[in-house]
Amino acid sequence: MPIRIRNLAATLSRVSQRPGLRHALRTAAAAVATLALVTALRLPQGYWAVVTAVIVMQANLGGSIRASWTRLAGTAIGAVSGAMAAYLGGQTWYAVGGAVFVTLAACTSVASLRESSRVAGITAVIVILAGHPGASPWQLGLDRFFEISLGILTALAVSVFVLPSRASRALDHGLAAVFEDVAAYFALVVEGRLREDYVERQVFALKDRILRTLARCRELRREAGVEGRSGEAGARRSMLLYRAERLFEHVLAMDHVAAEWRGSGLHRHLPGELAGLEAATAAVLTGLAGSLRRSEPLPGLETLGARVRAARDKLGAMRRERTPAAYDLSEVMHFFSFMHGMLSCAADAGEIVRRLRAGEED
Questions:
Q1: How many angstroms from the chain centroid is the CA of residue 362?
Q2: Angle at CA 329, nearest 5°, toward 325 and 335?
Q3: How far apart are alpha carbons 207 and 249 in whole angstroms?
């Protein structure tokens, strides 16, 4: 028996490390707990509470709180408008139409309630059509609101106590993924230019993934705020998200140049400096990702600083020797735009590390 218990505990531990399975377990727990409650309370239509618990359960506590608030507010609006329409017009087509119109108009007029407009409309229709002759529509609306509130409260309790997951931690992992992908994107663009071989398919795949991850990080930042994860930690994550977006913009600008830039050019005068700067910048960004994901030490900046100085020194020497004068204006503009993007990426990577290090020392 003890061996079976240990095996079960080990299996649950492995399962709990996978975000998708953690969410599935929490949702199942919320559904079972809600079903037990509605059974104990003998609610005649308690399945609405179970459905609500499944709907509002999100991947993290902040997401669950946001979904709970919108569903609860939408249900309240739908229940009131449905009860009013049923009281005035009964189970008629104009009562249904009027209730749905009023409900959706009220929800869509408030930005934070737009997500709940469908739920609110469904609630209004149920309150009107699910009633029986002689039954009070106000009581029916109150019953729906109580059932859904019960499902929401149960889902929130499960989010807090069963395999809890926080948006703030998920945001750290999301930012780590962005820094890793930006480092790969940066390296791909620079190496493609040095080899004079622009790999469009790989570039497109990386850009698409970074854009989707950044969008998810913005959502997670809002959910972390709902959890109350503000203060210094919240400011730190906001800074990281802002800098990640800036880095992506710098590499996008380099990518636009590389896509149009073909053949021999000024980059052939400093291949070693470009390769060294690319490797050092990518290493710092990858080290940042490791620090966010696994609490590793922040990467050092000595190599990056040396590579930036070497690139600037070489650019200065090229200007003194009037090397750009041998090329047409388009080539010169492409080259210096590309170099500006590389140096900006290096500067932002270094600034992120310095800010995080200063925060650790405070």
A1: 28
A2: 85
A3: 11
Q: Do residues 261 and 338 touch, judged by C-beta distance below 8 A?
A: yes
- The model's pTM is 0.73
Give the domain CATH number at 346.
Answer: 1.20.58
Q: Quick one: 328 and 183 in the same domain?
A: yes
Q: For residue 214, which amino acid is it?
A: L
Q: How many CB atoms lie within 10 A of CB 132?
A: 7
- Alpha-helix runs per DSSP H in 195-230: 200-226
The reported pLDDT for the residue numbered 277 is 96
Residues 357 and 269 in one domain: yes
Residue type, 36: A
Tokens of 288: 């940042």
Q: What is the largest CA-CA distance in the chain?
A: 96
Model confidence band, residue 15 (pLDDT cutoffs 50, 70, 90): low
Q: Are residues 117 and 256 in the same domain?
A: no
Contact 145, 79 (CB under 8 A): yes
Average pLDDT, the chain: 84
Domain end residue (candidates: 116, 131, 161): 161
Structure tokens at 89: 């017009």
- 247 pLDDT band, cuts 50/70/90, is very high
Cα torsion through 48, 49, 55, 57, rounded to 10: -170
Separation of first and last alpha carbons in the chain: 51
Residue span of the structural domain in which 301 resides: 167-361
CA 89 to CA 4: how far, in whole Å?
62
Count up the domains in the chain and report the number.
2
CB neighbour burial string for 84-116, b if at least 16 within 10 angstroms, e if fewer: bbbeebeeeeebbebbbebbbebbeeeeebeeb
Instruction: Please write the tens of the pLDDT for every residue from 86-113.
Output: 888 888 888 889 989 999 898 888 877 7
